[in-house]
Amino acid sequence: MGISKDSLSGKGGLDLVRVRRAGQITLPREVREAMNLGEGDYLAPQFTKGGVLLRPVNVHAREPSAAQEAEILDVVNQERRKYAKERRR
To answer: What is the pTM of this model?
Structure first.
């Protein structure tokens, strides 16, 4: 079952989407199928004059940059030193 132009323009056809606990929503099956969305896919919200537009995005696993890795290791080392200092007391 496809989505008609009228359905997308708010003139009927699609079910209402209810905001649930923790801000969760469920997109109707017709929308998920038309957009080829599956469990675990990501949508990027964009505010528009009329509401919120949800765009599918590809998210790839990323390795931290050298600077990020150095920052993480610095924080870990600081915490290790603090812990060792507290244990000596």
So the answer is: 0.50
